[in-house]
Amino acid sequence: MEASAMPHLGQAASAACTMATSFLAPVKTERQIYENSMLEDDPNANSVVPNSSEDRVKPRWGPNHKGAQELANLYSGGKRIQEVICFSVCIILMSLNILFILVRIKLENLSSIVLAAFCGIITADFISGFAHWAADTWGSIEIPIIGKNFLRPFREHHIDPTSITRHDFIETNGDTFAVTIPVLCKLSWDFFCLSEFEIQKKFFWICFWYQLTIFVALTNQIHKWSHTYFGLPSYVIWLQEYHIILPRRHHRVHHVAPHETYFCITTGWLNWPLEKLRFWYILEYIIERITGYKPRDDDMKWAQKRS
Ligand SMILES: [Zn+2]
Ligand SMILES: [Zn+2]
After folding, report:
1. 236 contacts 225 by C-beta, under 8 angstroms
2. Distance from Cα 251 to the centre of ligand 2, integer Å
3. Which residue numbers delimit the Lipid desaturase domain (predicted)?
4. How does DSSP classify residue 293?
5. Domain count, the chain
6. Distance 153 CA to ligand 1 centre (A)
7. Is residue 197 one of the residues assigned to a domain?
8. Mean pLDDT of 15-31
9. pLDDT value at position 108?
10. Residue-wise pLDDT tens digits, 161-214
11. Any domain includes 287
């Protein structure tokens, strides 16, 4: 090899190293996490040194944040009734559909059921990310019906992430169970109306849609576990440690202000690739250019209601 080629090789190697280092760098550094998110694994705040005297009087996060208290008080009796009804309807439809599926399971279609489960969990992770991103980034509490009933929990969650651990089963899971109802209705309709031949022909898709509804319905429970640092059952900790469901340290990345990445909360498997593709950033850029709305405007407004 000619001596003149050596410096070029050296430059290429160092450029490749720099690219690899920035590609593999953590999405948020330990310092960013420490300074811009609530330390949920330290409930007595032993390791927290408030940045200013204002932080001590007007907390940036947690149950004493004035904005969080105002949002918590907007959880209404009507909303509770809607959650109980949706949850009950969903459980009835899930039970009915699983009976229809179980009587048709054969040894030869087991592999397609497993494949349908894998596709279902990936799709659920993407849906969780998309819905979470849309609710965090756009709209406001002032929008009639949608604002107070469906966007409110997202705003509350950023300024008091631990509030979810104090919500009961219905408040935690009511909305994620509710969104599966149309799909479960369609599946039941197919079981009642299609011939046995037609059901067998689309059995993979039936299994896919059914398992998708299960993973979507469980999403906020999994999300709640990712905020629970004490008293989790050992099987949940095992699932988190092997990253089968959303791990706690992984979800911390989303909770670093201004909450602009790592929106997927079922397994979190898609968070890293979507971040590297700058997927959310590009979507926000396009929407801002078309509509003129600024991403996270309402979220920022609530974060600043500290007194
Ligand atoms: Zn969020
Ligand atoms: Zn969260």
Report:
1. yes
2. 6
3. 121-298
4. P
5. 1
6. 10
7. yes
8. 75
9. 86
10. 999 999 999 999 999 999 999 999 999 999 999 999 999 999 999 999 999 999
11. yes
Ligand nearest 163 Cα, by number? 2
* Predicted pLDDT at 35: 78
Spacing, Cα 112 to ligand 1 middle (Å): 34
Buried (b) or exposed (e) across 98-134, using 16+ Cβ within 10 A? eebbeeeeeeeeeeebeebbebbbbbbbebbbbbbbe
- Is position 188 within any domain? yes
Distance (angstroms) between ligand 1 centre and the Cα of 206 equals: 31
% of the chain with per-residue pLDDT over 70: 91
Higher pLDDT, 8 or 165: 165
Rounded to the nearest angstrom, the distance between the alpha carbon of 194 and the centre of ligand 2 is 41
Domain coverage including residue 212: 60-303
What's this model's pTM, rounded to 2 decimal places? 0.88
Collapsing DSSP to helix, strand or coil, 120 comes out as helix
Ligand 2 centre to CA of 223 (Å) is 6
Distance (angstroms) between ligand 2 centre and the Cα of 196 equals 43
